[in-house]
């Protein structure tokens, strides 16, 4: 197992010396709720700190950055990496927390900051190190976000959940039970999400891929590959186990889907009913 701090963070600075900060959720049982912090997270398994910070940046922001260097250890537990990014935070994918934004040093002093993040910013302001500009990804390759979705059909109805109003993506819209792949296969992610979100038990051998939607939300954002799996059998009735994400589960007639509904989810249901395996959205 790799040695050193188990937590990682990325201190990203732009050409004007501003810092990319992440506003964390205020009403969840997490560290530093409602505070501005740095993107990052814990190492998983035998990951090195470099592998962990790269994965966390990809999952939280969609960024793939070359040239991240070890900058220091803060709070005795967090390995901080220094890097440069000159992009627009408004175009970043927000998969966790509320938003990303750049702030200059003077403004950060007036923000509610995670204490450890404020400490590392103070250290950086003192030495003024500005990393050189580097490309975001190599040779034009753009990583796609992979999402998995559970399609359950019973008596001509499909299971959909109403998303919580505080979510950054699709608040108060109906959607499949869904999640993003971590360091796991798509089917393993599906099995885990079904259990964690709704208390449903499904077997890996009882699911089949029935539709794929390749989505580009808008120019400059990361494409998303949305995989929709049908479970032929399952155990249990859907329950709300993550009330900060879902207000309730309901079975909806296939010919009377609810409004509003996540657009690509509606497209997937229509594709499944039409016998099509693939849909593209947003690429025109």
Automatic annotation (TrEMBL):
Cofactor requirements of the protein: Mg(2+)
Sequence ranges assigned to domain Nudix hydrolase in this UniProt record: 3-125, 143-274
Keyword rRNA-binding: no
InterPro entries to which the protein is assigned, alphabetical: Nudix_hydrolase (IPR020476), NUDIX_hydrolase-like_dom_sf (IPR015797), NUDIX_hydrolase_CS (IPR020084), NUDIX_hydrolase_dom (IPR000086)
Pfam families on file: NUDIX (PF00293)
Gene Ontology molecular function terms on file: hydrolase activity
Keyword line: Hydrolase
Family per similarity comment: Belongs to the Nudix hydrolase family.
Protein name as annotated: Nudix hydrolase domain-containing protein
Organism in which the protein naturally occurs: Streptomyces phaeoluteigriseus
């Amino acid at each position: 197992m790799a040695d050193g701090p188990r937590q990682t963070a990325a201190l990203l600075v732009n050409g004007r010396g501003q810092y990319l900060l992440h506003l964390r959720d205020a009403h969840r049982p997490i560290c530093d709720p409602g505070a501005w912090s740095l993107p990052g997270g814990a190492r998983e398994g035998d990951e090195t700190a470099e592998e962990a910070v790269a994965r966390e940046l990809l999952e939280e922001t969609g960024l793939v950055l070359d040239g991240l260097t070890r900058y220091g250890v803060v709070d005795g537990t967090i390995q901080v990496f220094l890097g440069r990014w000159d992009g627009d935070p408004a175009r970043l994918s927000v998969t966790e927390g509320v938003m990303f934004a750049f702030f200059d040093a003077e403004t950060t002093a007036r923000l509610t900051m995670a204490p450890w993040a404020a400490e590392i910013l103070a250290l950086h302001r003192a030495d003024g190190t500005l990393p050189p500009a580097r490309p975001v990804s190599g040779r034009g390759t753009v990583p796609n976000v992979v999402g998995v979705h559970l399609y359950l059909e019973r008596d001509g109805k499909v299971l959909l959940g109403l998303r919580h109003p505080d979510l950054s993506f699709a608040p108060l819209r109906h959607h499949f039970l869904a999640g993003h792949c971590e360091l796991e296969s798509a089917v393993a992610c599906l099995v885990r999400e079904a259990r964690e979100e709704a208390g449903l038990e499904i077997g890996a051998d009882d699911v089949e891929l029935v539709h794929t939607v390749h989505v580009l939300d808008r120019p400059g954002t990361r494409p998303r590959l949305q995989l929709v799996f049908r479970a032929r059998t399952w155990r249990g009735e859907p329950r709300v186990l993550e009330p900060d994400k879902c207000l309730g589960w309901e079975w909806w007639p296939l010919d009377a889907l609810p409004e509003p509904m996540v657009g690509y989810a509606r497209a997937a249901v229509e594709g499944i009913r039409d016998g099509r395996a693939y849909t593209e959205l947003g690429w025109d």
